[in-house]
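Onboarding guide, step 5: your first structure request.
Type a short instruction followed by the sequence, for example:

Predict the 3D structure of this protein.
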Amino acid sequence: MIGLLGSAKLEENEGLLITPCSSVHTFGMRYSIDVLFLDKQLTIVKTVESLKPWRVAASGLSSLVLELAEDSIRKLQLKTGQQLEWQDEPA
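The system replies with structure tokens like these:
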């Protein structure tokens, strides 16, 4: 229920993965975010660019949500149907 609420604005290449999740809100936030709705295979089922404060977004098809810095979807050229890959940082 808290997510990014009360946090500093996300920097480029930062994000928050929320699981399980099919909806997000920006109530009480002071900045906009980009949102990716993902299924269990990490396929993008919906994108929301520049979700402004005091808004809600949802997707009945999603199992996870990746919240990103505003403008990340455009910069990374992310689109519905693309499959993401999770990689841990090398130690």
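Each response can be followed by summary notes, for example: The mean pLDDT is 91.
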